[in-house]
Amino acid sequence: MNSNNESTQIAEFTAPSVNNESAQDIINILDNRMVALIDLQLTLKHIHWNVVGPNFIGVHEMLDPQVDTIREMTDTIAERIATLGGVPIGTPQSLIERRTWQDYAIGKGLVTEHLAALDKVYNGINKDHRKALDKLAELDPVSEDMLVGQLADLEQFQWFVRAHIESSTGQLSR
């Protein structure tokens, strides 16, 4: 990593027909998404281990498939970074240094507490994925397409979470 916490493109190549400057821009965007998704998968496991109360087992079992899918998303992004000549860095300290959001604050907690907080986490993840898509639309259709597919899954996962905290009138408990 360089001094401003961006991934460094060290290879002397990038994907065919992508220039080095564009590749670095794409790598930086993808690096941010990779950090966010690694953070999300760890947060989901934390919730999985610490959720209690009514509907515990349903939530507990709902989260592991999300973790598995998000782990695959992370791997796909890391491999795209490498394809573009970058270095995907996923060490714990580097993730903390590059993260721009606060850590998840709930330890052991009720289903409704965790899911209301997780809904906010998904709000941030999904919003930032959309921002990344806007930038990638001009830079790299391959990376853009990758994130489009991921966003479809991420939004569905948020819907699963919201189904647990939604009233019959469509209001979310906060």
What would your notes on this structure say?
The protein is an all-alpha fold. The radius of gyration is 17 Å and the shape is elongated. 69% of the residues lie in helices and 2% in strands. Residues 1-5 have low confidence and may be disordered. Helix 1 runs antiparallel to helix 2 (56-83), helix 1 runs antiparallel to helix 4 and helix 2 packs antiparallel against helix 5 (141-165). It has one domain (20-165): Ferritin, core subunit, four-helix bundle (Ferritin, Up-down Bundle), CATH 1.20.1260.10. The chain starts with 19 loop residues before the first helix and ends in a 9-residue tail after the last helix.
Largest sheet: 2 strands, parallel
Q: What is the averaged pLDDT score?
A: 91
CATH homologous superfamily (4th level) name = Ferritin, core subunit, four-helix bundle
Task: Briefly note the CATH topology name.
Answer: Ferritin
As a whole number of angstroms, the C-alpha radius of gyration is 17 Å
Count of separate structural domains? 1
Any idea what the shape is? elongated
How many β-strands, per DSSP? 2
CATH class: Mainly Alpha
- Give the termini separation: 38 Å
Percent of residues in helical segments? 55-70%
CATH architecture classification name: Up-down Bundle
Could you tell me the strand content as a percent range? under 5%
